[in-house]
Amino acid sequence: MVEAPSIIFGGPQTICDDDNFPLQFSASNAVTYSWTCNPPFPAFPSTASSINFNGPYQVSVTTTYTVTLYSTTNSGCTSTANYPFTIVNAPPVPVVTPSGPISACGNPSVTLTVSTPFQYVSSIVWYQNFFSNPIAGSNGQTSITVTSTGNYFATVTAAGGACLKFSNMVNVVFSPPPTVTFTVVNENCAIANDGEITAVATGNP
């Protein structure tokens, strides 16, 4: 039995439209090639044994394409093979903005908001300091309120699970409230109320 021709695809099956990752299509077990794509896509149609092209791919909406290979084998058998891949319309680059001062003392808080329109997004995750440190309960939240010092940022993933985008980082610095203690170093009281007390105040600035 002669093995039917097949499509060999190089690259992720779901990619972002602003990605430069190369897409590569080639065929096995064939001697003639006829490539088409539905909907139409650059580099198709073709009769070459392989097709290679790079992004960015610039689609206006997320689109699934189906590449079809019509081919013949050495024995003269004809065959058809299909391969689908999806190009995801990337969300805008997310921007995080604070609602107020990000440097203060006492016990303040500030709300951080990511600007990416939610309709473009399948997930939003917030992080403090490191990508390995996601903030619990932040998934899907366009805004979070923070009360501690740290570098905060968000990631946004486009619909379809592709196109992970990183926001800018906002550095929040909240200092603890100052503590003050008084130490009496010179006490001299008189019955006539004309004595003096010298005090020294120390504490965190």
Summarize the entry for a quick read:
This protein is mainly β and 205 residues long. It contains no helices and 17 strands.
Give a topology summary.
Elements: E1 6-10, E2 14-16, E3 23-28, E4 32-38, E5 50-53, E6 63-72, E7 78-88, E8 96-98, E9 103-105, E10 110-114, E11 121-128, E12 143-146, E13 150-158, E14 164-166, E15 170-175, E16 180-188, E17 196-203
Structural class: mainly beta
Order of helices and strands: EEEEEEEEEEEEEEEEE
Number of strands: 17
User: What oligomerization state is this entry in?
Assistant: single chain
Mean pLDDT: 80
Rg, rounded, reads: 32 Å
Number of helices: 0
Q: How large a portion of the residues is in β-strands, by DSSP E?
A: over 45%
What form results from the Cα inertia axes?
rod-shaped
Helix content: under 10%
Largest sheet: 5 strands, mixed
- Distance from N terminus to C terminus (CA atoms, Å) equals 84 Å
Q: Pick out the low-confidence regions.
A: none
Question: What does this protein look like?
Answer:
This protein has no helices and 17 strands. The termini are far apart. β16 and β17 (196-203) form a beta hairpin. With 205 residues, it is mostly beta strands. It is 0% helix and 51% strand. The chain has strands at residues 6-10, 14-16, 23-28, 32-38, 50-53, 63-72, 78-88, 96-98, 103-105, 110-114, 121-128, 143-146, 150-158, 164-166, 170-175, 180-188, 196-203. Strands 9, 11, 13, 14 and 15 form a 5-stranded mixed sheet that branches. A 4-stranded mixed sheet has the order 2-7-6-4, with no helix packed on it. Strands 1-3-5 form a 3-stranded antiparallel sheet, with no helix packed on it. The model has no long low-confidence stretch (mean pLDDT 80).
